[in-house]
Amino acid sequence: MMNVPLVLTQFLDRAVALYGDKDGVYCDQRVFTYKELNQRVNQLSHGLKSLGVKKGDRVAYLAPNTVEMLEGFYGVFQLSAVMVPLNIRLIPEDYLFILNHSESKVLLVDQDLFHLIQPIKNRLTTVEHIIVQYKEDLNPEIDYEEWLTQQSNVPFPRADLDENDVCSLLYTSGTTGNPKGVMLTHRNNYLHALSTMHHLRVSDRDVYLHVLPMFHVNGWGSPFYYTANGATHICLKKATPEAIFAAIQTHKVSVLHMAPTVLNSLLQYHEKHQPVIEQNVRVVIAGSAPPPAFVTRVEKELGWEFIQVYGMTESSPLSLVSTIRPQISHLSPGEHAKIKAKAGFPMIGSDVRVVNENGEEVARDGKQIGEVVTRSHGVMLGYWKNPEATMETIRNGWLHTGDMGTVDEYGHIDIVDRKKDIIISGGENISSIEVEGALYEHPAILEAAVIAVPHEKWGETPHAYVVLRDHQKVSEEDIIKFSKEKLAHFKAVTGVTFVDELPKTASGKIQKVHLRNEYWSELGKEGRFIN
User: Fold this and answer.
1) Which residue from 133, 153, 316, 374 puts its CA 20 to 30 A from 357's CA?
2) Which CATH architecture describes the domain 422-523?
3) Which long-range contacts (CB under 8 A, 24 or more apart) does 481-484 make?
4) Taking the chain, what is the end-to-end CA distance rounded to the nearest angstrom?
5) What is the pLDDT of residues 448-497, one digit of tens each?
6) What distance in Å separates the CA atoms of residue 169 and residue 77, rounded to the nearest whole number?
7) CA 404, CA 252: separation in Å to the nearest integer?
8) Contacts of 276 (CB under 8 A, 6+ apart)
């Protein structure tokens, strides 16, 4: 008996076969049926082949949520090539590293983001072609739409695809400066899609609004499980509260994924403008755990169902979901809100545990803290060209997340700290070590340590503890400005505390836990935010 390989091209094939004449994608004023989307995908595959792209080659995308980004996934996969989606919030030097490290052969970039590539274009070592979407006349690069229309739209003769082939290379911030390329396979994403579409109750009646960027870990899965079900995609280039509510009303959106910060901006907009939404909406949130009061506001004021999920790029990404199971339905609304704000319980196909230093599971008391570890079909193949980091992260078959958590009596995991000192700001990961590295370039700074502090808009932002060199004088504003010059703005510090010395272990390692405790004791633990 011949097994059918679990490859992602099947998802669009299914949508075309069963929903071909249905409106599949809305982008700006354009609308495409699934058949029309598939024709564009075939044109893209033919075009990439004509540029010399073959199995295993990397094709990078720097684009907002557009039909061009969406069709990229399937157009690249038909060649058995590898998609490299780039975070649109980085700086040119970051793109230089990622494009050269990934050895990307072709770069497709949106005109609005081309200025980020221009400064580093001449230092790209492997990129042979740059194709610009929505190209302006003065831009000398290849015009995407013009190039696409020149290609055949007949079915593309697909390269041999194995489910264990790498389909995506996703660069994620680590605790060291340079990002690491996470290799995910067709099988990783396929089985993750099957599990996620169940837990999020995805159906062919759904209208999905792309708020979370498709390059983002939790936005990355949506081209798969919403397409597989023949749901309708609404692409949103700029996700302002006004644009989001307009799209929800116009297209009768039923589901959207976003970071807590975006949802917070929607609450503020709704409070002021009171837009009327008639259909049922569910909102899927990943990132810093929200306070229970936040969950209550979403469900009462917006009338939306709140679903918290947890995962990381290295696990494709989702492994936990926080919904109310029947056996705890008797609890009070307040208790339900507390539970919904947690990371949740394991999704089908994921074995997630919280373990102590000896690898033993912690007690289900909501108090004992351990590291969250997982094993699943979604766990990555490894880090691209980085076997040492791979072995450090995947040990004895378990993916070590670096997140610290507790488990309550019902089996819900709650993330309480980040072992790796990653700061999650606006849903984006920031390496504290990278920020510290930038600060050390300041001539007046002797030592610096960066921690996450709460922020009303972004959830968390970097805050620096700084020891100045002798006889040096510099203000908080100077250091903030300096960090903005050195880093992408969302990575820059938002506050500085000057100290005479930093707390250290006997071996000289800075003890950030003491800095956090000091910050919280001064701030007052009861939910005050910096602005």
Assistant:
1) 316
2) 2-Layer Sandwich (3.30)
3) 482/438, 482/439, 482/442, 483/435, 483/438, 483/439
4) 62
5) 989 999 888 888 899 999 999 888 999 999 999 999 999 999 999 999 99
6) 12
7) 39
8) 249
